[in-house]
Amino acid sequence: MLQEQTSAAGIDDPLQSRTLYARARKSFPLGINRGTMELDPGPIYMASGQGAHITDLDGRRYLDLNNNFTTLLHGHAYLPVMEAVSKQLRQGTCFANPTAHEIALAELLIERIPAIEQLRFVNTDSEAVMFAIKAARAYTGRPAIARFAGAYHGSYDWAEIGQNVASDDRKDRLATAAPAYRGAPAHIADDVLVLEFNDIDRLELQLATLADRLAAILIDPMPSRAGLLEPQKPFIDLIHSLSRQHGILIIADEVLNLRQSYQGAASRYGLVPDLLTMGKIIGGGFPIGAIGGRSDVMAVFGKEGQPCQVSQGGTFSANPVSMVAGLVAMQAMTRSAFDRLERMGDRLRSQLAQCAGNRNLAFSITGAASLFRIHPRWVAPSRYAEAIPTKDGLTVMHAMTRFFRENGVCLPLGAAACLSTPMTDADIDHVVSVFDDFLKTPIARRQET
């Protein structure tokens, strides 16, 4: 029924979106304000969102598996958040002074997440990572960081290096990482060691080359942009051992993966970080970021009787609107709510894999809890070099994203798809059905060889 409705609405002719995109290109480079926006063939402009669905300006309705890049745990226009924010708007949107709301949200996060003893709120995910790196440098007195290829850590110069490195022709090694854009100081690359996720064989040797200069190992416990790679226990154990041996801090970037459980992703995989960054879900749909960790490390931001080592400001940091929204959204995410999302995610990933297996096609599924990705390859990747799609694979991914959109489902291209609490078993069944229908198309059947 949904497929018939969307087809009737003219899914391939988004008239109002095309009109707005033509206007936008006069005002914005490429006509957009985020480089992550999908332009195939152009952006779809949205009019509204409600629960698990969004509606574009041409009146077409989609099941949203993007949720603003995994931010919206409760989907769109979640009523308890809307009511709390509406009340706060009448009382004021921002002050130069603190409010009680920031303490309440901080206490909730500290109570839930074992690695956090103290925290600081900032405005964005990128700021959270930037200040975590600065804190590690100030604490250790060292300038360099290690990070893993393909993982996304925001727009700080040192965090960007290694995000987009390509593999060589053999697909088992990565090309040398370089600054992320032309004109960036070349010396930045001297203080960033780019490693391969889950590569136990080379990790110790590579770290040893820069160990005395390394302040921190920056790690996303399940790197999304790199393929939603599942961390292997020996790999996590080795990171712990080497960090202790060389006096290197561990920074867990859980901006995206905090949604993996009531206590986040680091706890789930046995990672014990010294610092942890957060964002997305903790803001309830409003801008936010946070850095937390051991109190002795967090003391670089200020300690009574001692000079501040790292200055951290931000006009809108801990603004009451984000604090109120985040508190209400996180309070609603009880252990049972996380468990329900995980059961739905398990069922979805299993059935998607079963569809591909039944048709003997080269598609595999990665992810955990409420997150998943579909890869155009026989075996699920365990390293970034394996997750980089071939030219043909990228063509298949574009076709799959278009097919989902044409059938009323917003599926991110080359990024983590996610579930939200208003989704139902019927929504899961619909996603599986659309994927199975896509596997019948000629472009999908190319994956037989």
UniProtKB/TrEMBL annotation:
CDD domains: OAT_like (cd00610). Gene3D superfamilies: Aspartate Aminotransferase, domain 1, Type I PLP-dependent aspartate aminotransferase-like (Major domain). It comes from Peteryoungia desertarenae. It holds the Pfam family Aminotran_3. Its cofactor is pyridoxal 5'-phosphate. Belongs to the class-III pyridoxal-phosphate-dependent aminotransferase family. One of its GO terms (molecular function) is transaminase activity. This is Aspartate aminotransferase family protein.
